[in-house]
Fold this sequence. Notes:
This protein is of the alpha/beta class. It has a single domain (about 25-240, about 280-320), classed as Thiamin diphosphate (ThDP)-binding fold, Pyr/PP domains (Rossmann fold). About 30% of the residues lie in helices and about 20% in strands. The chain contains 12 helices and 13 strands. It has helices at about 40-50, 70, 90-100, 110-115, 120-130, 175-180, 195-205, 230-235, 285-300, 315-320, 335, 340-350; strands at about 60-65, 80-85, 105-110, 135-140, 140-145, 150, 185-190, 210-215, 240, 240-245, 260-265, 270-275, 305-310. The protein has an 8-stranded mixed beta sheet with strand order 2-1-3-4-8-7-13-9, sandwiched between helices. A hairpin with a 5-residue loop joins strand 5 and strand 6. Helix 3 (about 90-100) packs parallel to helix 5 and helix 6 packs antiparallel against helix 9. The protein binds thiamine diphosphate (TPP), iron/sulfur cluster and magnesium ion. The site of thiamine diphosphate has 18 residues, from helix 2, helix 4 and strand 5.
Amino acid sequence: xxxxxxxxxxxxxxxxxxxxxxxxxxxxxxxxxxxxxxxxxxxxxxxxxxxxxxxxxxxxxxxxxxxxxxxxxxxxxxxxxxxxxxxxxxxxxxxxxxxxxxxxxxxxxxxxxxxxxxxxxxxxxxxxxxxxxxxxxxxxxxxxxxxxxxxxxxxxxxxxxxxxxxxxxxxxxxxxxxxxxxxxxxxxxxxxxxxxxxxxxxxxxxxxxxxxxxxxxxxxxxxxxxxxxxxxxxxxxxxxxxxxxxxxxxxxxxxxxxxxxxxxxxxxxxxxxxxxxxxxxxxxxxxxxxxxxxxxxxxxxxxxxxxxxxxxxxxxxxxxxxxxxxxxxxxxxxxxxxxxxxxxxxxxxxx
Length: 351
Ligand SMILES: Cc1ncc(C[n+]2csc(CCOP(=O)(O)OP(=O)(O)O)c2C)c(N)n1
Ligand code: SF4
Ligand SMILES: [Mg+2]
């Protein structure tokens, strides 16, 4: 294993959240990724979001697959539960864990190779089932860990570092997530912390399948001219649909906005998303319009970022299955095995 433990010493004046935790308490080991890798910025944004939301680290389960992106859960939330699955299998392992213990906050971290190639079947079923999770794809358009082969999200016509042109059509994970019924869909850029942190916070508070596609340049293999996932390309083609702020209702809501510039989306769990609309025509609650908007801008070579779709009244796998509120892993043997009489009644109903 290549990892370095961080020294535990804190500066006494570091700001603390409501749980008396500093940001350092949400960090993990020292990253071994390449200096400048977008994935490290996403880890920093996750740390910031969890710190700001006063998330209790022991209530988080981080799961990932294989790849540079999937290594990152080791670099944040060092006091949380963590599990590295086989390549592309994070969604099914997470689904199982979620069904066993619905009380944890599930954070699935994946790469474009991990989710759009080997794990595609897993990704689509997690979305269509509505697993209550934050699913983050750290999207660099390449298999970073195995030295830069094109991934399935690489745009047609984009160039590899060695000058080879990609001739395959890209898979758009945002379009798929929308089509499959994800109830919170957003795209951002690793280098835009101001946009990314609130999007992660909104996803954490969302009670359903929340999907975040984060363009995350690979400085080693996909940050050159001709790449559509480089820092320069994304900065030039970024079209932000909204600016987001998340206001947990535990705090006093202070609103400071001009009429017509902001809309508020009340979520089922009582939290409120405040959207600063840059494009007055963009409505993130309109599913069909969101799908069209993303496709139209993609055709123009624009990367649309922001909260693209949110269902203010989401449902999740537990509500679809009608499971009990008590996490299954806390039920007594008596409740899990109700006895011969009940079993015979169930079997009788099947005859
Ligand atoms: C079953 C299996 N097949 C192939 C591999 C080799 N492999 C490791 S990581 C990876 C792709 C990683 O790409 P991505 O998910 O985009 O992560 P990145 O490194 O770009 O962050 C591949 C193909 C593997 N580890 N296991
Ligand atoms: S190879 Fe690419 S994705 Fe992997 S750590 Fe380096 S910059 Fe990041
Ligand atoms: Mg990748």
